[in-house]
Fold this protein.
Amino acid sequence: MAKRLPRQSSIQVLDRAMSLLDALTHTDQPLSLKTLSLTTQLNRSTACRILDALQRHGYVEKAGTGFYRLPEIKTNPLNMRSIPEMAEDLTAITSVNDKLEQSIALPECVDSCIHSPEPIIEVLAMDTLVRVRDAINETVSLARFDNGDVIFTRCVGSQRVPVTEISEGMRLPLHLTACGKLWLGEQGIEITLEYNVQRGKFAASTLNFIEEENILHESRRAFKRGYGNESEETQPGIASIATLIYDRSGPIAGLSIHAPIARLDQRWAAVLKAHTLLLTQQLCLQQAA
């Protein structure tokens, strides 16, 4: 049974929604409203309201009267139709926390992005990386996907120890990174199986080598919950959490937080989702212009 997340954040609605999603992530079977209420220690009416909201956005589906589960195949939550609704929700959510509200503000460089020689996403994301780093004081990175690899193109480090070894220009196989696992899950089983066939070049890796069935399991699990995780697969003692940034063609980059295992908080996924949603919205608006 999923363990309730400790209350450390003032964003109560996000904490409660994440606890419900966490409970559903830990089982492949539908759970009743009563079970979810007991697991998360939420009263039934509160749990029901949040589950209904999650269902409207495609994160949860009903499985009979009073039962809920994660969708087997979830529609991209960041498509253009859902962006205005989710952005409206985020506006209400971020207003309760001044520090996060400041960190989620859109970068002032938006208007000059089209004229930059760098990819637009890297210009847009730079201010975001700094804001997230300053809010949580951990290393934050932006990564692109290239031919079975993740390439870290931007990295804003933290002065806290131990220091993470992620640096700009570093290239790692998809299955060893949090954003890479989520990308594989987004692409589906066929692409993941094809990746497994082609991954022989990674066989020499000494960092927690993952077998094919585990790659499938981890990528599917990341997709179902909407964020990716890795633990000590890129650096001993360090774990990461990541979400994806989309344009009109699909996922193009990953935003990740890297921290020692003892300090990594799974609820940071909500912070990352807020930022990647805003970056996605801005990219799509730029493409539509």
The chain has two domains: 12-69, 83-288. Residues 1-10, 73-117, 201-210 have pLDDT under 50 and may be disordered. The radius of gyration is 18 Å. Residues 268-288 form the longest helix (21 residues).
